[in-house]
Each structure stands twice: as C-alpha cells, then as structure tokens.
Amino acid sequence: MRLEKNLNKLDIIDKFFIIWSFFIPITSFVLIPSVKGSLISYILGFISPLIILFKRKNFLKKYIICFGEFVYIWLAFFCLSQLGNLIYNINISDLILVSNETNNIKVFRNSIFTQSLYLVPCILLYLYCKFFYNIKWDKWIVYSGWLFSVIGLYFLLYFLLTGQNGDIISNRVFADNTEVSNIAQRLSILSIGIERVQSLSGEPSMYAFTILPYIIFAIHRKANKLLIATMIVSLLLSVSTTGFLGIIIYIICILFFSKINKRYIKNLIIFIGILIFIYFLFSSYIDEIIMNMIINKITADPTNISGLERSANIMDNIIYWSNLNNINFLFGIGFGVIRSTDLLTTFLINIGLIGTLLFAYFYLKKIKLRNLTMKKIGDNAILLVLFITSMISVPEFSYLSFWLFLGLINSKNN
Q1: Is residue 26 within 8 Å of 41, Cβ to Cβ?
Q2: How far apart are CA 46 and CA 124, in angstroms?
Q3: Fewer CB atoms inside 10 Å of the end CB: C or N, the chain?
C-alpha cells in the first residue's frame, strides 16, 4: 500500500523513468534476437520524446535545441570524415571493421548509420535525465542496479547447484550467430567451479562496467548497506579486470577528493582493511586471479591471448591513426567504422583527435573541485571510473548506463 501511494504521487515523467530504469542495465535480451538494437531500453528511449511532447511541452524547445546540437556535430564529423576518405582513398584492410562490407567501400559504410542509430537512444536518455531528473529517482536507480546484481548472483547460485547455465532470458545474437547465453565464462575457486557473474550484460567485463557506477551512486546517496554489499559482492565475483580497475580508480578518487574530510578517509581505511583480511584468507587464489586477469594483460604475457590481442590492437590502431592524412587525423574516418578492444583508439580512428577531445570535455566537464559534498565526490568518481575504464578496456559507447549517470550529473536538479 505504501509503495502504491508513493507511485501515485509521481507524474508520468517519473513513472516512465522508473519503468525505463529497470531495463537500462540489460543488454543481453532483445525483442527480436537477430536485431541487436531491439533492446527494451532502446525502444523506451525512442518513445521518451513522445512523453515529453504530451506532458512537458514547456521543455520541448530546449529539448529539441539540445538534440539538434548533437545532430549538428554528427553531421559535421560525418561530412569531414567522408570527404577525407574520398580525397585520400584511405586503406582500411588492416582494421577491425564493424560491418562485413568489402574493404573497397570506404565512404558511407553501413556501420556508420547503424552505429549512429544505436547512439540515438543514448542521447535521448541523457537529455531525459538532464531535464527531468529529481531526487525521487535515486532509490529506483539503486533498486535497478541491485536487481541486476541479484540476477547475476542467481545465475551463479543456479550453476553451483545444478552445473548448468541458469540464464534462460538472454537471447541476443552476435555477428557470428553465437547467443550471449552460450558464452558464460567459468573459473575455479578452491577447487569449486563457478560461473563469473555477468547477469544480463553479455560478459563479465561488461557487467563490471555496468554495475560500477550503480555501486558508487548507492554509496554516495547513502542507500541501504545490504543493497550496496550485494552489488559489491557481485562485482568481485565477476572477476573482471575492468572491475578491479574501477575499484582502484574509485579508491584514488576518494583519496584525492576527500583529502579534507577525515570521515571519508576513515571509511575507506576500514574498507581496505576488509579487503586485506579477505586477501589473507584466500591469498593463493587471489594471487592467481591478479596474475591471470591483470598482470599478464598489462605485461602482454605470451600465455594470455586476451592481453596480447588488446595490446596489439591498441598499438596497431595508434600507428594507423598517426599515419592518417590531416583531415582523417583530426576528424576520423567515420563514426562506427571500426571497433577495437578499447574506446580510446576506437574514437581516435573513428572521430579523430578533435572528436576524441570533444567527447572527453563533454563527459568530464562536470567534475567539481570545490565545495565538495559526499554526493559530488561520488559524481566525480562515477565520471572518472566510467571514462577511464571505457577508454582502456571497454569499447562501448552505447551502454545506456554510461549515459544515465552522465545525464543526471548534468541535471540542474542534482
């Protein structure tokens, strides 16, 4: 009854977001398996302008102007990049191309338009949050992240009890016709085989990338400690380099931004102490995890195929980009043409130096250095964790959680 009364107090803008929020983290279930973009969250994104049109007409002009600014920037980069491709007849045969078209097609490749279409619901979510976010959304954002983590932990528990993959929901199909539900990643802890937590994200690194901002958001909005603990446990059980990297970045952010607040430092020391205690209990296992998931990747150990591939792709892309003509060097060869193992070199080649710097400014401009509260420190940490992890290890620009937090941090109501 209490929940019903609280929901009745909300207007349609808030109610629509509440429904939307529970689908935002989900990326492995689509309405049409062969159509990657038929995520429920994307469809709700395309519906969102209609909600604004009928319920918040006073915001419509600002909303259209902001969306128009994105379109204008996209068109400018589109025209300049394709002009460079046409004039200089660039070579793309050695790149990791998104579309399977022949390498001879260098102008107006299909992936430019399909990848740009994926960007549209991201922008629509960003604008929806920027204009309409209010504090009443906070608990629903935390609940959606918590439920996402519970689903992942359920899949893990189901595997422990049955030895089978419990994910009967995921149905998204990759380009090679492999279903997301068929690529569960497993490991052994104390001679017990478990599935790495990935929930409905597709893979553990994507899960870690998705859940990290929810955890930070919940901590700095002082959410229920049990909800926070559940999400943290699920993150650790994803056993993902992205997750470990995000934790390190978060700790550094807290140390840097909270240097004048002794209470934050005290809580951080307690958290680190707990981690040290856990390490002593499971040191041999954790050492193996750190070696396989982090050290080998960084040092390009020859036994670590993933790390070697990531290092090689980054170096090859930087060399390719640095040798481009002036137009493509500055504006790229086209948004969505390639997809590497990191967002930095993906952007450098696709949208060039100017596009990459413009995106960095757009994403990081709201970082605060003065008059910091616990909430603002959390916002800073979210922006830096998402930005750095995506640039280094997650080449995904179209994960809606990436834009959800950017939108609410940019909101005047935050």
Answers
A1: yes
A2: 7
A3: N
How wide is the angle at C-alpha 57 spanned by C-alphas 52 and 63, nearest 5°?
Answer: 65
Please classify residue 303 by burial: count the beta carbons closer than 10 Å to its beta carbon, then call 0-12 exposed, 13-18 middle and 19+ buried: exposed
Please return the burial class of 107, using the count of CB atoms within 10 Å of its CB with bins 0-12, 13-18 and 19+.
Answer: middle
Q: With contact defined as beta carbons under 8 Å apart, do 188 and 160 qualify? A: no
- Max Cα–Cα distance, the chain, nearest Å: 67
Q: How far apart are the first and last CA of the chain?
A: 29
Task: Pull the structure tokens for residue 327.
Answer: 């137009």
- 186, β-bridge pairs: 195
Nearest Cα to Cα of residue 351 among 29, 18, 77: 77
Q: Give the pTM.
A: 0.88
Query: Which two three-digit tokens encode residue 350?
Result: 């696709």
d(CA 405, CA 386): 9
Confidence check: pLDDT of 384 > 80:
yes
Number of Cβ within a 10 Å radius of residue 251: 15
Give dist(CA 30, CA 356) in Å, integer: 30
Residue 282 and residue 263: Cα distance in Å, rounded? 29
Task: For residue 189, give the H/E element and its range.
Answer: strand 186-189
Are 129 and 404 within 8 A, CB to CB? yes
